[in-house]
Automatic annotation (TrEMBL):
It comes from the Bacteria. Gene3D superfamilies: Aspartate Aminotransferase, domain 1 (3.90.1150.10), Type I PLP-dependent aspartate aminotransferase-like (Major domain) (3.40.640.10). Keywords: Aminotransferase, Pyridoxal phosphate, Transferase. The keyword Ligase does not apply. Residues 19-367 form the Aminotransferase class I/classII large domain. This is Aminotransferase. GO terms for molecular function: transaminase activity. Its cofactor is pyridoxal 5'-phosphate.
Length: 377
C-alpha cells in the first residue's frame, strides 16, 4: 500500500514550515462544552473496554440524531460505533467484499477506498466524474456494472470536489443498486458541512434503500474534532451485524470517554450546527475570493472543507503533483494533488485546498499560493 497523500503532504508541510492546506482539519471552531464532557467522562472512570458495538447511550444518540435531522427511522441495533469513519469504511469493505468481487468507485474518490477493496480481494471499477460539474452519469456507471459487481462506494457530500449531489443523482445510484442487487457503502461524513442554504439528503432515505445502504458518519467532522476518531455505521440489522463482526477484529471498540462526549454532543449540540456551517461558508468565500483576486481559477464548492483550483485554467502548465511539491518546498503552502484520488488522467490539473481555517491561516495560505503562481509564470 502506498503512503497516504495526507501523511505525505503534512510531513512536507512540517519539514518546510509551510501553511498546511493539504490534510483536512480545522484550526478553529470546536465546541468547548464537548471537550469538558470528554474530560469529565475520563475522570469519572469511563476508561475500560466498552461494548464492541459502542456504548448504548451513543448508539441511541446517533439513531435519535438521524431521526431529528434526516428523518431516518433507525434503532440503536442498527448502529455500530467505530474508530473514525476510516475504520467504518474498512469494516464495511471487509464485511461485504469477497475475493473476486468488483466494487464501483466514483473518482476522484477518498484515498482509502481502492486500497481497502484490493486488500479484501476485490477489484475497484473506477467511474470518472468530470470537472467542473462532477455529475453522476447513469450510463457510465451502468457500463461499469458486471455480474461480479457487489457494491458501490458512494461519497456525498463529496471529498475532494466539495460537490453535494442532487436528488436525481442519488436516484441514479439507488436505481442501479436495486436493479443489480448491490450494497451501497454511503460515506456521508460531511453531512453537516453543507454551505449556504443547501440541503443534504441521506441515500438511505430513498425508497427501497434502507436495507442496502451502509451509512457512514464521523463525529470528527460534526464537531470539528478530526483527531477524535469516533465514527459509526448505520444499516439494517443484518448488514450492521456483519459490519460489527468485522469491526470486532479491527479495533474491537473505541475510547469510551470520547463516546460519552460524542453522545452528549449529538444530543445537546444541535444549536452548534448552523453557526459551524456559517463559519465554514465564510471561510470558503474568503479563500475563494483571495485566490480569484490572485488570478486562480477556483471551482465552486458546496460542502466539505475543500475547494479545487484548476491549474491549467489558471495559466499553470505543470501537473498537480509537480505544483504541489513546488508549492510546499518553495512557496510555503501544502495542498493535495487530485491525482491522489484517481488512477486515470482527468484530475491531473487540479489541486485541493482546505479552507476550514481561521482568517489568518487563510490569508497566509493565499499569499503563499500567489507566490507559487509566480514560480510557474
Ligand atoms: N471519508 C471521507 C470522505 C473523509 O473525507 C474522511 C476524512 N476527511 C474520512 C472518511 C475519514 O474520517 P475519520 O477521520 O472519521 O476517520
Ligand atoms: N479526510 C481528511 C482529508 O480528506 C484526512 C484524513 C486523513 O488524514 N486520513 O483531508
Amino acid at each position: 500500500m502506498k503512503v497516504s497523500v495526507f501523511e505525505r503532504m503534512s510531513a512536507l508541510a512540517t519539514k518546510h514550515g509551510a501553511v498546511n492546506l493539504g490534510q483536512g482539519f480545522p484550526d478553529f471552531g470546536w465546541p468547548p462544552e464537548i471537550l469538558e464532557a470528554a474530560a469529565a467522562a475520563l475522570r469519572n472512570g469511563s476508561n475500560q473496554y466498552p461494548p464492541s458495538r459502542g456504548l448504548a447511550e451513543l448508539r441511541a444518540a446517533v439513531a435519535n440524531h438521524y431521526s431529528r435531522h434526516q428523518s431516518l427511522a433507525l434503532t440503536a441495533e442498527e448502529i455500530c460505533v467505530t474508530s473514525g469513519a476510516t475504520e467504518a469504511l474498512g469494516a464495511s469493505i471487509l464485511a461485504t467484499v469477497a475475493p473476486g468481487d468488483e466494487v464501483i468507485l466514483l473518482t476522484p474518490a477518498y484515498d482509502s477506498y481502492a486500497p481497502m477493496v484490493r486488500r479484501a480481494g476485490g477489484t475497484p471499477a473506477e467511474v470518472a466524474l468530470r470537472p467542473p460539474n462532477w455529475r453522476v452519469e447513469r450510463q457510465l456507471i451502468e457500463a461499469a456494472v458486471s455480474p461480479k459487481t457487489r457494491a458501490i462506494i458512494f461519497n456525498n457530500p463529496h471529498n475532494p470536489t466539495g460537490r453535494l449531489f442532487d436528488l436525481e443523482e442519488l436516484q441514479t445510484i439507488a436505481d442501479l443498486a436495486k436493479q443489480h442487487d448491490l450494497v451501497v457503502i454511503s460515506d456521508e461524513v460531511w453531512e453537516h458541512v453543507v454551505l449556504g442554504e443547501r440541503h443534504f439528503t441521506p441515500l438511505a432515505s430513498l425508497p427501497g434503500m434502507a436495507e442496502r445502504v451502509i451509512k457512514i458518519g464521523s463525529a470528527g467532522k460534526i464537531f470539528s474534532l478530526t483527531g477524535w476518531k469516533v465514527g459509526w455505521i448505520a444499516a439494517s440489522p443484518d448488514l450492521a451485524g456483519v459490519v460489527a463482526r468485522a469491526h470486532q477484529f479491527l479495533t474491537f471498540s473505541t475510547a469510551p470517554n470520547l463516546q460519552v462526549a460524542v453522545a452528549y454532543g449529538l444530543t445537546e449540540g444541535d444549536a452548534w450546527l448552523d453557526p459551524m456551517r456559517q463559519r465554514f461558508a465564510r471561510a470558503c468565500n474568503r479563500m475563494t475570493e483571495g485566490l480569484r483576486a490572485g488570478g486562480y481559477e477556483v471551482l465552486e464548492a458546496a460542502s466539505t472543507y475543500f475547494l479545487c483550483v484548476d491549474l491549467d485554467a489558471s495559466g499553470i502548465a505543470v501537473s498537480d503533483e509537480e505544483f504541489a511539491i513546488a508549492a510546499v518546498e518553495q512557496a510555503g503552502v501544502a495542498v493535495v494533488p487530485l491525482s491522489a484520488f484517481a488512477e486515470e488522467n482527468a484530475c491531473r490539473h487540479l489541486v485541493r485546498l482546505c479552507f476550514g481555517k481561521k482568517d489568518e491561516t487563510i490569508d497566509a495560505g493565499v499569499a503563499a499560493m500567489l507566490k507559487a503562481k509566480e514560480i510557474f509564470s
